[in-house]
Amino acid sequence: MSDPKDNKGKAPEAPKAEDAPGNKLSTKAVEALLESNAALKNELAGMDKDKAAEALRKMDIAELLTGLAVGGKNQKDMASYKFWQTQPVPRFDEAANDAGGPIKIIDPEKVSKTPDTLIEGFEWATLDLTNDDELQELWDLLTYHYVEDDNAMFRFRYSKSFLHWALMSPGWKKEWHVGVRATKSKKLVASICGVPTEVRVRDQKIKVTEINFLCIHKKLRSKRLTPVLIKEITRRCYLSGIYQAVYTAGVVLPTPVSSCRYYHRPLDWLKLYEIGFSHLPRGSTKARQITKNHLPSTTSTPGLRAMEAKDVNAVQDLLERYSKRFALNQAFTREEVEHWLLHKEEAGKEQVVWSYVVEDAETHKITDFVSFYNLESTVIQHPKHDNVRAAYLYYYGTETAFTQDQKALKERLLMLMNDALILAKKAKFDVFNALTLHDNPLFLEQLKFGAGDGQLHYYLYNYRTAPVPGGVNDKNLPDEKKMGGVGIVML
C-alpha cells in the first residue's frame, strides 16, 4: 500500500542499460501503460506507435514510472520498482478484466505478529493522536518534510484540526497510525497512516484502508524506508482483517486503476501571481486577469445554506445514490457523512470542511449539496506571502443527476459550483482546486479552472479490476464522454 503524496523519496539506483525494464515490455504492455496514463500518452502523441514504444523501452524505470514527463519530472520520487514486483498489485502487462477480485488471498494465521526489524538506530512507534504532544510531532514532521512542488516553492501545511479530521474518522484504529523514531533521541522521523472505510468497485463493496501521510525526514531519504513502512502498515491491516487498500500518487506505479488531472480556479489571482502559482498570459495585463477571475458577491442557487446536523440523513441518502453512478466510489455510513461533511464549531479548532445544502422552499427536501475542504500550503521563502489557502472540491450531489438530462445536469452544476467558488472566496481562500473526477468535466473549463501540470493516479492494493475513466481524454483534457469512473475523493 503506497501513499499518495510521498513525492520526495530517494531515487532508485539507475539500472544498467541492458536491464532497463522497458526492454522487457511487449508492445501490448507498452500500449497498456500508455492507456493508463494520459499525460505520458499525450507527450508521445507526436510519434507513431512503434517509435513511442521504442522511446519507452529506452527509458530507465524511474523515468518510465513517473509518467508525467519523459524528461523525468518526479523521477527521484519513485519507490523502487523491484519492491512493487513483490506486492499484490496488477502488473502493467496484464490484460484488463472488468470482473474484479482480490489478487492474493491472505491467510491471517500466516501474518507475522511482529514487525520487520528496522535499520540500526531506529524503532517502530504507534502514534496516539489524542495526545497533543504526539499530534504536534506528526504535524512537525509533515510541515517540514512532506510534499513540495518540483521547484520547492510550496509545501503542504496540514493543520492539527485537519490531521484529527483525516485520521480519526469512524472506526479509526490507533495501530494504523504508524511512526518510526530515532532510538536515542526518540524523535519522530517517518510516518504512514491509514483509516478504514468501504468502497464500491463496479458495485462490489469491499472493506479497505485509505492510506495517507507517508512521510520520511529529508535526512533519511537514502535509508530505503518507504518499502519498510508500506510493508508494516500492510501487516497491521492484515492483522485487523482488512486485505485491500486504496491510495493515490502523483507518480505512476503498477498499475493505476484511473488517472485524473488537477484543475485550479484562481480566487485571488494577484496573490497567486505574486507567489509564482499563476502566470501572466502573453498579451494580457494584471488588471485584465483580475477582472477575468472576478466573482459575484452573492450566490444564485435558491435555498442554498450551510449544512446542519439535521441534514445528515438527507445528505447521506443523496450522496449514496449519486455516488453509485461511478465505477469506483466510497460507500458512506451516516456516521461517516457526519464526520467528513458536517463542520462542528469547537474552541481552538480550525474549520476544515465547508458544506452547503440546497433546501426546496416548498417541500423542504434537500435537492443538492456541495462541499470543499481547506488545505493550506506554506510559501517557502517569499518576502510578502507565507501561505496560500487552497479549497479542494470534495463531495457533492444533485437530484438533477437522476433526470438522465445531461444538459440540465450541466446547467445545475454550473450554478452550484459557481456558488461554491463565491463561498470559498468569502471564506478567504486564494485558489479552488478540483480534479477531473465525478461530473467535474461538465463545468471546469466554463468556470475558468486552469489545467494544472499534475496528474493524480488512483490505485487499489490487492485488488484487480479493469481501469475506469478519469474524466480526461487522450489529450489529457476534461471530456464529458470520459466520466462515470472515479467517484472517490482522497485527501
From TrEMBL:
GO terms for cellular component: cytoplasm. The keyword Nucleotide-binding does not apply. Residues 1-28 are annotated as: Disordered. Residues 106-260 form the Glycylpeptide N-tetradecanoyltransferase N-terminal domain. It is found in: Cytoplasm. Monomer. Belongs to the NMT family. This is Glycylpeptide N-tetradecanoyltransferase.
